[in-house]
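Need tokens for this chain, all 339 residues.
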Amino acid sequence: MRLTTLKTRMSVAAAAVLSTAAMLAAPLAHAAWEPTKPVEFVVPAGTGGGADQMARLIQGVVVKHNLMKQPLVVVNKSGGAGAEGFLDVKNAKGDPHKIVVTLSNLFTTPLATGVPFNWRDMTPVSMMALDNFVLWVNAETPYQNAKQYVDAVKAAGPSKMKMGGTGSKQEDQILTVGIEKATGAKFIYIPFKGGGEVAVQLVGKHVDSTVNNPIEAVAQWRAGQLRALCVFDEKRMPYPNKITDKQSWQDVPTCKESGIPTEYTMLRGIFMPPGVSKDQVAFFTDLFKKVRATPEWKDYMEKGAFNQTYMDGEPFTAWLGKAEQQHRDLMKDAGFLAK
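Here are the structure tokens for all 339 residues:
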């Protein structure tokens, strides 16, 4: 009986010691690392496009909800199809006060240009979402669906109709080549600096169509200036609220439904420079989880009709390896690989 009592007292005492140790350790673990000066948020693309809009939305959310003590400063470095921004982050080895939002030009830029950069030269933090691509035409044109438009492109003859897109040998042009291979249509591809400019060019009828991301053309769609023909995801976008007086994102058919068997989505991810610590990565992983939990982020996801896939850690790294190979294969087929 006494032995049992002694064991009980020892167990209680040990539990108390462990509990106290845990209480002392918790604040230390929580305060392992946080930024001590402003954090530069690099956008390897021009202003007004999808990556720029996402970075500035995140900047506003962080400020509004006081998620970080130091400022988050957005800086556009779009030179060389984003190579300027990627090389800047690559060369900032060990600097935890610099992060970058990535597009799929993370893969396409080095493959197309031969610039000495690979996604493995940076530290993956998290996949925030996958961005969709939509086939757009001017609302004043007669095309009511993707099949009608593709038939018109074929009827016009090779290289008569203009497809506007962001950059050369990047996502928009890769997707354009995919459409051509799937349908037999042939476009003249016209590159612009960013998705915002691409949308403006289509409104002005300087191009015949675009494959802009939803967020890059939603304002013009809502205003009745553009028409959404189809989305290049495997499923329809799961957002039922009306954007125009007649249509929601969910009402836009997939391109496969519309006779264009081509699928493509684009990474929206966060990376840090090489050589940063696990604690520093953990801080930003946690920060972006908090961002994704805010009503502003959820509203942004719906307005931009994003595919809300999220990853971090090993699953994200594994996904990046597969995505790189996918882009290598697509670009090889299109003849876009650097020689």
